[in-house]
Amino acid sequence: MSYAKASDLLRVADMATSRFGGIALQDITQEFGCEHRTAQRMMRAFEAAFPQVEIYDDAERRRRWKMPHHDPRLILAQGIRDSELAALDMAIRRADRDAAPDEAQRLRALRDRMLAAMPASHARRAEADAEALLEAQGFASRPGPRAAPNLALLGTLTEALRAPFELTFDYRGALDESARERCVEPHGLLLGIRRYLVARPTDGDGQMRRFRLDRIENARITGRSFARAPDFDLQTFAAQAFGSFHSDAEFGPVVWRFASAAAPTARQFVFHPGQEMTAEADGTLTVRFSASGLMEMAWYLYQWGDQVEVLAPAALREMIAGHRRPDFPALP
Q1: pTM greater than 0.70 (yes/no)
Q2: Would you state the torsion angle of the CA atoms of residues 28, 34, 37, 40, taken in this order, to the nearest 10 degrees?
Q3: Which of 80, 93, 193, 279 has the fewest CB atoms found within 10 Å of its own CB?
Q4: In this structure, are residues 66 and 21 in contact, taking their beta carbons and an 8 Å threshold?
């Protein structure tokens, strides 16, 4: 058996052990990107290599393979591969970069616990190999300007969201510099061009509101718990906006048409989670979705120069009418 095939069977053993219901052929085709018959041959080899595997048919009459949990020696003997440790280190760095201190702390704890379970010599070798791999590959970066995060505020918000606890803070309005105290029930964060806390004021009408993080001061956790809104979905709420700003008055159908020269590039983008793309007979590409936030749309569309036409809404078409430049040398 080749080294590659042996490594694949060990990966199958990991999957069959860690998943409560075991694995099916569909899991193998998705994991390894192979065809159904290749997955069947792999599982026959797996059965021969691991006779202790439990094989059964589920309620949908699909064959499943499950490794018993009572003997973890197989998993522990494999240790941690340098590529896996490098991926975990990269995830920690991304969390630090994206101002998610709670996530970064938990990933570090997981990393330390995994290394502690390994023999010391194996752990040192894996760390050294992972560091070399990161150095060789470089660390994925997200270039461009972004707002400097307030890590103390994000830490407070994360704790309040996880509990959950009510939160009080001083909030400066858009039209004046005076701040007034607000008490809210936090439900999530929007991390777009601007960052917003999504929360329900305790003394309001029960509707969710957005609070800009750069206008929040003196955030404090009250210690009073609350029941999260059972029908609230953060992704659905966020989809009301193109970026992070939402306005009921602006919400409605949006239709953009990209020129034939820009269509292949535009087809690679997800402009909105609810978008529909239509390839037109003349080679252009029409994108439709419903959202608000015309200013953020205008900022974004400027990058496309004269390669995009706004068909709806009329207010957005008027906003960008004088800014569709024909001299941009490249598309986004």
Answers
A1: no
A2: -30
A3: 279
A4: yes
Domain boundary among 32, 55, 77: 77
The answer to whether the CB of 249 falls within 8 A of the CB of 227 is no
Q: What is the pLDDT of residue 120?
A: 60
Is 144 contained in some domain? no
Phi and psi, residue 148, nearest 5°: -70, 125
Angle between helices 36-49 and 3-18 (to 10 degrees): 80
pLDDT digits (tens, 9 = 90+) for 122-143: 555 556 555 555 544 555 455 6
Q: Which residues contact 314 (CB under 8 A, 6 or more apart)?
A: none
- pLDDT single digits (tens) 208-250: 999 999 999 999 999 899 999 999 999 899 999 998 888 999 9
What tokens were used for 199? 């929360």
Strand partners, 286: 257, 278
Total domains in the chain come to: 4
Q: Is 278 exposed, middle or buried (0-12, 13-18, 19+ CB in 10 A)?
A: exposed
In angstroms, the CA 182 to CA 190 distance is 19
Out of 237, 268, 301, pick the residue that ends a domain: 237
Higher pLDDT among residues 60 and 81, named by residue: 60
Task: Mark whether 171 and 226 lie in a shared domain.
Answer: yes
Residue 154 is assigned to a structural domain of this protein = no
280 and 297 in a single domain? The answer is yes
Q: How many CB atoms lie within 10 A of CB 231?
A: 6
CATH number of the structural domain spanning residue 261: 3.30.70
**What ranges make up the beta strands (E) of the chain?**
23-24, 54-57, 63-66, 165-172, 179-191, 195-201, 209-212, 216-225, 252-258, 276-279, 285-291, 308-312
200: DSSP letter = E
Residues of the domain holding 317: 252-323
Residue 301 counted as domain residue? yes
